Amino acid sequence: MRQLLLAGAGVLGLMLVAGCANKEDNTPTYLDIPPTETDTMGMQPLLNDAKLATTSPPVRAAFLHDFPNAGISTISMKVTTTGETLYRITFIQNGQADIVVYNDSGRIVEQPASLAPVPPGVRVP
What we know:
There is one protein chain. 30% of the residues lie in helices and 23% in strands. With 125 residues, the chain is α+β, with helices and mostly antiparallel strands. It has a domain at 44-110: Nuclear Transport Factor 2, Chain: A (Roll). It has a 4-stranded antiparallel sheet, with helices on one face. The longest helix has 19 residues, at 2-20. The protein is elongated.
């Protein structure tokens, strides 16, 4: 029994030493590749599609056309007192957070700050 325990401990020790050794090639592994700030391991288009599924098809098409490289943070829907459905989409594009509001037909009703014209007299860095 004691010999069996010693043999098992020896095999376990060898497995630990072999497992801790450096890999011989320097190819990156899944854990070596850092995720980017705009894409979670290549999943951003799928995440955007899942979030846009709560909107109307014209809103989905318009957002994907207007902001093809954006990552959607949140989408909220609001029905106005006149019965118009609005979709407020918060997103990140080029490292900047922004918001756009579409009506149900996919028309922008509130421009994101990054696309809004600069008022006269305002200095842009």
